[in-house]
């Protein structure tokens, strides 16, 4: 179970402790005493869950959409819950562990038919500080006595979890990993590379670095196209398959109810946020393209602040980038380039939370989803803020492409464009 205490009991306990908490609020909190365990093996945290979807129609009912396809948002909830179980197997129960980021979720082989699914994973990177990377996969359940083959793997993903002192709410150290085999060394190296890449990325964000020369040229080229579209003296009109970014936005808001709380009772479960952001991103891609999008990946996304039970969650989905883009560095004036029959579209979902009185607002995360569309369509930014969203998304696309190339060299895999439209997950 994700939670261990009925909400009404947790609420009563919190109210009873309220007076004591108020008395202690002026005093500095002392760190909880918990012993740091020695190094742990990857296998110590391994956990597996089987979803008998092909055998249990009532269980399947919870995972189906109107078309009889598997709801990816529901699987994302399960994956986040599984990452929490794995994290606590590694750290023990003396710390509070939260989801800090989803580093990637990638479709490897589209699911073509309903079957039993096996969700499994383990901690694959932990140095002894507060964070750990957990690698997970969703696969067809193998035959009795068999092992999951590469072709049976539907989805792979990586979550970054952070352990906090339950009293001070500050990061606390956890056991490092003990590496015993070559395969474990490979997994650990991938996690280390991912960790270092995120550190480097934080130094090159658009808040710290202006667009480079190539990006500036692309921004200028798109601005010139805008002028052409609005110049009455030029017989160039905006094509029907070019859509302005500001017209792609979709919004949602909802009160955070206790049914989606995490195991600590008063904050919302990270898997619920994944589900909510994914479904809004799917709707945004469908609204933008007037077609049914196929999910390709969740690109690196962050959980910046917790979402309290009882708060109001606001989500904004925007088409941030399309590939092939409207203009590219290879585009030459006067050259007619052949249109691709497919478009990859990146949807950015920004989330923020407000208390019910709407007195305080906090950003809670940014989520970046990539879908495949079976048509040629482009997004076009118009304001400086939209150009920065476009540049940021373009950088992310290039980084993810580089990571995918590296993962293939080290034995990974990702879905081919021609296969993405034939799966039964959405």
Keywords:
426 residues; alpha+beta; ten-stranded antiparallel sheet; two-stranded parallel ribbon; globular
Secondary structure: elements and pairs:
Layout: H1 7-24, E1 40-41, E2 47-51, H2 57-61, H3 72-91, E3 96-107, E4 117-125, E5 131-140, E6 153-164, E7 177-178, H4 182-203, H5 213-230, E8 242-244, E9 250-255, H6 270-289, E10 294-303, E11 312-323, E12 343-354, E13 361-373, E14 378-380, H7 384-409, H8 417-420
Parallel strand pairs: 1-7, 8-14
Antiparallel strand pairs: 2-4, 3-6, 3-10, 4-5, 5-6, 9-11, 10-13, 11-12, 12-13
Helix pairs in contact: 3-6
How would you characterize this protein structure?
It is a single chain. The chain is of the alpha+beta class. Helices cover about 30% and strands about 25% of the residues. The chain has helices at about 5-25, 55-60, 70-90, 180-205, 215-230, 270-290, 385-410, 415-420; strands spanning about 40, 45-50, 95-105, 115-125, 130-140, 155-165, 175-180, 240-245, 250-255, 295-305, 310-325, 345-355, 360-375, 380. A hairpin with a 5-residue loop joins strand 4 (about 115-125) and strand 5 (about 130-140). The protein is globular. Residues about 20-25, about 330-335 and about 410-415 have low confidence and may be disordered.
């Amino acid at each position: 179970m994700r939670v261990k205490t009925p909400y009404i009991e947790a609420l009563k306990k919190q109210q009873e402790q309220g007076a004591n908490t108020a008395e202690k609020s002026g005093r500095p909190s002392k760190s909880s005493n918990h012993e740091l365990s020695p190094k742990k093996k990857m296998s110590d945290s391994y956990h597996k869950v089987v979803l008998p979807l092909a055998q249990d129609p009532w269980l399947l009912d919870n995972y189906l959409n109107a078309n009889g396809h598997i709801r990816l948002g529901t699987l994302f909830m399960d994956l986040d819950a599984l990452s929490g179980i794995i994290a606590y197997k590694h750290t023990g129960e003396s710390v509070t562990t939260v989801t800090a980021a989803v580093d990637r979720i990638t479709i490897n082989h589209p699911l073509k038919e309903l079957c039993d699914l096996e969700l499994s994973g383990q901690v694959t990177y932990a140095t002894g500080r507060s964070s750990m990377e957990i690698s997970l996969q969703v696969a067809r359940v193998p035959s009795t006595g068999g092992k999951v083959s590469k072709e049976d793997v539907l989805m792979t993903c990586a979550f970054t979890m952070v352990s906090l002192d339950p009293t001070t709410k500050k990061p606390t150290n956890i056991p490092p990993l003990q590496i015993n085999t070559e395969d474990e060394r490979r997994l650990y190296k991938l996690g280390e590379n991912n960790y270092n890449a995120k550190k480097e990325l934080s130094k090159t964000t658009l808040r710290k670095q202006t667009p480079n020369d190539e990006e500036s040229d692309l921004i200028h080229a798109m601005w010139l196209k805008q002028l052409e579209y609005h110049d009455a003296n030029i017989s160039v009109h905006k094509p029907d398959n070019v859509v302005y970014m500001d017209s792609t936005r979709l919004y949602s808001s909802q009160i955070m109810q206790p049914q989606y709380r995490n195991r600590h009772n008063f904050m919302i479960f990270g898997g619920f946020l994944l589900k909510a952001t994914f479904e809004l991103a799917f709707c945004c891609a469908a609204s933008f393209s007037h077609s049914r999008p196929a999910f390709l990946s969740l690109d690196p996304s962050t959980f910046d602040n917790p979402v309290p039970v009882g708060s109001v969650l606001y989500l904004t989905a925007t088409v941030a980038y399309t590939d092939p883009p409207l203009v590219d560095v290879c585009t030459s004036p006067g050259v007619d380039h052949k249109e691709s029959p497919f478009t990859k579209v990146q949807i950015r979902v920004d989330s923020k939370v407000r208390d019910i009185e709407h007195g305080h607002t906090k950003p809670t995360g940014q989520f970046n989803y990539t879908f495949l569309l079976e048509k040629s369509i482009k997004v076009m930014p118009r304001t400086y803020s939209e150009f920065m969203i476009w540049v940021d998304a373009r950088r992310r696309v290039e980084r993810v492409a580089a990571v995918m190339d590296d993962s293939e060299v080290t034995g990974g895999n990702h879905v081919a464009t021609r296969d993405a439209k034939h799966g039964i997950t959405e």
